[in-house]
Amino acid sequence: MLETRSLTKSFGAIHVTRSVSLRLERGERRVILGPNGAGKTTLFNLLVGELAPDSGTVHLAGEDVTALPVARRARRGLSRSYQKNTLFDGLTVEENLALAAAVPTGHATRLWSDSLSRPEIRETVAEVAEQVRLVPYLHAKVSEVSYGVRRQLEVGVALATRPHVLLMDEPTSGVGPEMSKGFHDLLNDLPSDLTLLIIEHDMDLAFAVADTITVLNYGEVVFDGLPEAARGSKLLKDIYLGSWEDA
Ligand SMILES: Nc1ncnc2c1ncn2[C@@H]1O[C@H](COP(=O)(O)OP(=O)(O)OP(=O)(O)O)[C@@H](O)[C@H]1O
Ligand SMILES: [Mg+2]
Question: What are the ABC transporter domain coordinates in residue numbering (predicted)?
Answer without folding.
Answer: 2-243
